[in-house]
Every structure is written in C-alpha cells, then in structure tokens.
Amino acid sequence: MEIRYSVCPHDCPDTCALKVNIENGRIVKVGGDSSHPITRGVICEKVRAYPERIYGNRILYPMRGAGKKGSGEFKRISWDDAIDEIAGRWKELISECGPESIMPYSYGGTEGIINKSSMDRRLFNKIGATALDRTICSTAGSLGYQLAYGISKGVNPLDAVNSKLIIFWGINALETNMHQAILADAARKNGAKIIAIDVHRNKTAKWADDFYMILPGSDGALALGIANIILRDNLADKAFLEEYSYGFDEFRKKTMEYPPERVAGLTGISKERIEGLAKLYAKTKPSFIRIGNGLQHHNNGGINTWTISLLPALTGAWQDKGGGALKSNSGYFPLNEDALKRPNLIKNPVRTVNMVQLGKALCELNPPVRSLYVYNSNPAVVAPNQNLVLKGLGREDLFTVVHEQTMTDTAKWADIILPATTSFEHADLYVSYWHTSLQWADPVIPIVGEAKPNIEVFKLIAQSLGFTDQCFLDSEEDIARQALDIPYWRDNGITLEMLKKERFIMIDTEDCPFEWGKLSTPSGKIEFKSEKVASGGLLNIPDYKPIKEYILSLGNKNRTSRSESKFPLILITPPNHYFLNSSFAGVFSLKTKALEPLLEINPKDAEERGISNGDLVKVENERGCIFIKAKVLDSVLPGVVVSTGLWWRENYKNGGGINVLTPDNLSDIGGGATFFSASVEVKKGYPNLPIET
Ligand SMILES: Nc1nc2c(c(=O)[nH]1)N[C@H]1C(S)=C(S)[C@@H](COP(=O)(O)OP(=O)(O)OC[C@H]3O[C@@H](n4cnc5c(=O)[nH]c(N)nc54)[C@H](O)[C@@H]3O)O[C@H]1N2
Ligand SMILES: Nc1nc2c(c(=O)[nH]1)N[C@H]1C(S)=C(S)[C@@H](COP(=O)(O)OP(=O)(O)OC[C@H]3O[C@@H](n4cnc5c(=O)[nH]c(N)nc54)[C@H](O)[C@@H]3O)O[C@H]1N2
Ligand code: SF4
Ligand SMILES: [Mo]
C-alpha cells in the first residue's frame, strides 16, 4: 500500500487536500490530508466514492458516432484518426465558413488552472474561434460584490472562528462549503450564533440557530430593510462611513423607501423578525456574512448581492477580526492571465457567446456555429433551457467533439468522443475561491485506458493544425511557472519548486482584506453608488426589483395576484449533497443514496392542486415539461417549489431534466445565469404518462 497526495479538482469552494491509498497502481481509498490547515483531513462523501468514479463507467478510448445523432452508439477509433478528423474538419470550416464557426464550451469540470484555462484558450485564440463568456456560475454575484469593494476578496475563512454572528445568506454551506460550516461550528462553541437565510429549509437551515425563510429574489429588499432599521436606530458606524464610503447619502435616502412593514410584504418575513435580525446584526461584533451563489441565480441577483455586501460597511464590521463578508476569495490568487491564455494570439476581433445561452447560440446564431468542442462541462444537463440546447446538439450539420471522463448526456450527442484523464492521472496547479492556499498535485496513478489530459489534446490539435508557436509546446510545469510569474508571487519568493515540495502554500492575509481608501473601485472607496450599473436602465444605487419572471408571468408587479398567472410557482433547483453539479450523478452508490429527483411543494399549493405526498406530477412552463414525484411539506413557502440535484436525464420519466424548465435570461448585471427565476405550474399526474406506477 502506497500513500500519495492530491487535490480535489471539483468546482467546490473547499478545494480539499487529499490523501490517496494506492494498491498495485490502483486507487483503493480517497481521504483527506490531515496536514492541510483548513480542510484538515475531512472530505465529502462524493469524493470518498472516487474509486468508483475512476474505474467504473469511464470512457477508455476515442470513439466516432456510429448511429443516429444522440443515439449514444459509437465505434472505437485511434487517437491519430480522432485528431486527424477534428483538425481536418476544422481546416475545412476555417476556410469555408471562417474560424468563428468553431466554438469551445467549457466550465468547471476541473478547477486545475492548467487543464481549465491555459492551452485551450491559446488554441481557440489562435484559431480565432467564437469566444465563450463563462458566466454560468457566479458572475452576477461576483460583480455585485465587486461594485462595493472592487475585488473578489473577503474574510479569510479561518478568521470566522472569531465571529459571534455568522449569517449564511443564500448558501447551503453544510452541503456546498462544508469546511465553512465546520469553522462556524467552532465559532458556535465560542458563543457565536448561526443564522440561515434561504428559500427552503435545507440542511443548513436546520443546523443553524435561526432560520429566515425568504421569498425568492427578495434578498435585496431584506438588505435594504435591515439598512433602514440600522440607520433609523443610529446603529451605523458613521465615522467609518464618512472616511471610507462613496455615495452613502443617496443610499441612505433609498433605504427610507424600505421600512420594515413594506419589507415584510416583499420578503415574506414578519416585521418583528426583520427588526430582530437587523438589531442583532448591528449589535453583534464580529459579524460575518457568508454570501452564497443561490441568491444570485436570479434576474436581480447582481444588485441584490451588492446590497447585501454593503451591510458590513454600514456597521463597520470589517474592522473586527472575523467581521465582514465573503462571496469569493479568488482575488487572493492573481495569476499571469496573459501568459496562461495568450490573448495576443487573437488576430481579428471575435464574437462572444454567453454560455448561459448555448441553445440560442446553436439554434439562432448567424453565421452559425458549425463545430462545438465541449470539455470540463456537461451542458446537456447543466445549461438552462435544455430543450433548446438539445435541439442545437441534435443539428446534423453541427460537428461536435466531447472530451469527457464518462458517458454524460452531452457525450451521447458527440460526433467524436475523446477520453479525458481524471485529476489523479494528470498534474495541475490549484487555487481556491474560498480558502487561501495554493496547491499543486502530481499524477498519482497511471492513466486509465487511453485517456489524455486536456492540455495534451489541445497541443495535439494545435500541432495538427500546423501551429508552430512555442506556447503550444509548453508542459504543465512550464505553464504553472508562467502563471506564477508576476510580482505578487515573485516578491514573496513563491515558486513552483517550493510548491511542489510543500504541496500547499498558505497565503499570508491581513486581519482585514482591504486597505481602506485604496480599494480598486473607481472612487477608491466602498461604493454605495456606482456609475458602472447606471447603464441598462438600472439605478446607480442599490434598489430592489422583483425577479422578472414574476413580472412577466403576472403582467404586473403585484405578487399577491401571483395565483392568477399561468405559471404561478417559482421553481428553485439548487445542487444536492451527493452530486457536484452533474458530476457524480452517474456514480451508482451516490445516485442510490440520493434516491430520486423530488419536488418539494407547500401543503397549501399541493392541496389546491389535489396533490398528495409521493404523487407523480407534471411541472411545466413555456419551455417544456418534466415529470417528478411530489414531496409535500412546509419546508418551502407557498408559491415556491424546490427540486435539488442536477440529475442526468434518464432519471426523469419523460427524459426531460430539470433544466428543461429554467430560463436562459441573463441576470441584471454580469450576464449571469438566472436558473432560479423560473416560473412553473404543477399538475397532478398526466393522462398519457409513459411511466410505470
Ligand atoms: N454538494 C455539492 N456542493 C457543491 C456543488 C454541488 O453541486 N454539490 N456545487 C458547487 C458550485 S459550482 C457552486 S456554484 C456552489 C453552490 O452552492 P451555494 O453557494 O450554496 O448555492 P446553491 O446551492 O445554488 O444555493 C444555495 C441556497 O440558496 C437558496 N436560494 C435560492 N434562491 C434564493 C433566494 O432568492 N434567496 C436566498 N436567500 N436563497 C435562495 C437555495 O434554496 C439554496 O439552498 O456549490 C459548490 N459546492
Ligand atoms: N438548474 C440548475 N442548473 C445549474 C445549477 C443549478 O444550481 N441549478 N448550477 C450551475 C452552476 S453554479 C454551475 S458551476 C454549472 C456547472 O456545470 P459544469 O461545469 O458543466 O459541471 P459538471 O456537471 O460538474 O460537469 C463537468 C464535466 O466535466 C468533466 N470533467 C472533469 N474533469 C475533466 C477534465 O479534466 N477534462 C475534461 N475534458 N472533462 C472533465 C466531468 O466528467 C463532468 O462531466 O451548472 C449550472 N447549472
Ligand atoms: S467536492 Fe468539495 S468538499 Fe468534497 S472533497 Fe472536493 S473540495 Fe472537498
Ligand atoms: Mo457553480
């Protein structure tokens, strides 16, 4: 038995350091590395099941589609044939239709910098392919936070043990950022109170000391209401605001429009509870708000996140160790992006497609996309407006290449499938968007089947296209060195050699992440007012707008008449405990534990529709329908339904996944995804239902 070390590559804030047991060249156990100061040897159930993911259901060699498109029938081919075919088709397309007829599609399959965003960008830049705006996860909220502070940096999670009040706002931390929950538990032992603000009573809400169940998309109103009370009761830190804020007076005036009586109606939280929360927040020090991605997956998610981000500035909470907020800490890891991605290889300006609108891009874009190269993502499951995405993937004239570890719903639509290595089979450099350690992982097992790492494949394609630039020869280590070649790392003496030896390096952080008065906002101060948002018809100070789907489905802004609309319920579809987005949804043991897709519905809504617990229901809107079992319980407010987990399509009775129902509208700022601003109707059963009962 050999013990080796690695890093979890998944798109999860925790970026755990891993300890791997190997027998005869095979991984037999994946656990945590107890020497890592933050993740401390504790990892989630998903990654403990990794041996099953590595050795079961892997794509082992390149294949070419052999049946009707989407049939899932393939024939084995050699790597040489696969690369020749891709390069050959692309050469034809480049000369006949132009380079923008080729488009990459990728997201967070691996968070390793090298296999996520280096050689791929170089290749597509050199080709002059259509560029992809990678917005599906967090751009709305990140931009919202940056409006206030200029950069994605917040409280160092380790400091949160000092906090006396921790608010988990729109984040299911117990399942999606488990080490933050562990640190909060430590704070609780020191007397901290934990609060959750969410649209359904999830695991985090049950574990918290107090839970506020809020109407979807109304967080901005709650934050303005809290600010109203803080200012009314003279609980703001006036000296701090005077010195370090910009546009505060206008913000103060705006908050007057949000007295607790009004906010109660907008949020579904009683006036008394809002008063209590505001006073507790203003008076408890240090106070820490962990802002999640859930609340920003709405039409109004960017501005709502901005509004919440301003609360610790209002109370001056940042001045206490463990006080402030955290949306993302990716700002602690500046990398030499130009060296990684080589934007200078782009010869002519290229068009950009927002990844949230993949269906539209494939079905409506003119001139059309003729070849799609998918890696690190499973758009047939994770992208919104799924029926349109599938229509696009089904186009006979679209040449689709999918580089994957496992036979996903997307891979089934490929013309060419390429086998991808897992992070245990390739080297990579890891940053975290939550904690502050830089990590490196070497391969720990031999490659399974004929799989190849992303960068290897992009290098082969570049070679086959005749690209001779030096950067297409770089190895993983070359790229890592280039990434770290900026003063931030150089001046601190941090090198790849050092990182390889130590496996992880903790970044030194100050008690407070900011140098007040020297923020990278336009004014250098904390911005309560931002000229950046004035375009697009938005106010330049935070204001609350209800999510657009309400407006669309109602024809007016009055929520109380929601029941008159054709699709009166708001559908929220966050991730679940056992899957990582759609990854692991094909791992048998985890899928078995996750049981089946369910729709949580409030007893009142269920009764109105004659729905009982366990009934099969049809959930529909203008984009399509799915069939799913109802779970009747008061874990959601009336008017809201929730279904967790990005299950593969085969798990739904008519083969339509949850994203059939989600909109591909873009968020207020940042062009982000609005998965949770979906309006639907739910009906009991269905006459011609093709299901076994
Ligand atoms: N186990 C597990 N962990 C994961 C992932 C996974 O799939 N599984 N995915 C990873 C990724 S890529 C991401 S982006 C993060 C996402 O993890 P989080 O940041 O936790 O975000 P979500 O789980 O999408 O949503 C969090 C909560 O927001 C709630 N919510 C929805 N709408 C609103 C609203 O309007 N207001 C409020 N206050 N709450 C709302 C949802 O009900 C949900 O419980 O997790 C990462 N970690
Ligand atoms: N309804 C709804 N939809 C959502 C969300 C939601 O909450 N609700 N969440 C959204 C969010 S926040 C996100 S981040 C996206 C996530 O969307 P994706 O980034 O597409 O996430 P995954 O489903 O994990 O798919 C990643 C795929 O990459 C593959 N992969 C892993 N490593 C490698 C590698 O090294 N090379 C290659 N070639 N492939 C690899 C994995 O096998 C997996 O199939 O989904 C979004 N979709
Ligand atoms: S998925 Fe998240 S919690 Fe699980 S091992 Fe990876 S980084 Fe850690
Ligand atoms: Mo995400």
Question: Brief overview, please?
Answer:
With 693 residues, the protein is an alpha/beta fold. 31% of the residues lie in helices and 18% in strands.
What does this structure look like?
- The protein is α/β, with parallel strands linked by helices and 693 residues long.
- It has four domains: 2-55, Phosphorylase Kinase, domain 1, CATH 3.30.200.210; 63-137 and 334-428 and 438-489, Rossmann fold; 147-327 and 515-535, Dimethylsulfoxide Reductase, domain 2 (3-Layer(aba) Sandwich); 547-688, Barwin-like endoglucanases, CATH 2.40.40.20.
- The protein has 27 helices and 27 strands.
- The strands form seven sheets. A six-stranded mixed sheet has the order 5-4-17-16-15-6, covered by helices on one side.
- Strand 18 and strand 19 form a beta hairpin.
- Helix 6 runs parallel beside helix 15 and helix 10 runs antiparallel to helix 13 (260-267).
- The relative contact order is 0.16.
- The model is unreliable at 550-562 and 688-693 (pLDDT under 50).
- One ligand MGD binds at residues 11, 107-110, 115, 136-137, 293, 375-378, 382, 403-406, 408, 420, 454, 573-575, 580-583, 646, 658-659, 662, 675.
